[in-house]
Amino acid sequence: MKKEGKKCSDAPTCSVDYAFRRIGGKYKGRILWALHENTILRYGELGRNLADITTKMLTQTLKEMEKDKLINRKVYHQVPPKVEYSLSEIGKELIPFINYLKEWGDKKMGRI
């Protein structure tokens, strides 16, 4: 009996998989929405908008979103350091879909 090698790939299997890998998870949609509502937020402001997120998770999530080009990160070289986050053009493309999900969630939560 021939044993086949285990196939392991981080490549998305379809476009839906690709999309949810970029925006899935507990915080990414909420970060996108917070940046949509506020235009520009600093790290601490994002942390306050997502009260249940740890510092480590916020840092990790922002790095992933910047890598995926969903957000812009602008660093001001000053003391103390200042960093601002905003939606990229790609991130802005997602807002109508997140708004639709928000409206759906509002309706469903109203039924609870």
From TrEMBL:
Gene3D superfamilies: Winged helix-like DNA-binding domain superfamily/Winged helix DNA-binding domain. The keyword Transcription regulation applies. GO terms for molecular function: DNA binding. The keyword DNA-binding applies. Keywords: DNA-binding, Transcription, Transcription regulation. Residues 14-112 form the HTH hxlR-type domain. It comes from the Bacteria. This is Winged helix-turn-helix transcriptional regulator. InterPro entries: HTH_HxlR (IPR002577), WH-like_DNA-bd_sf (IPR036388), WH_DNA-bd_sf (IPR036390). It comes from Fulvivirga sediminis. Pfam families: HxlR.
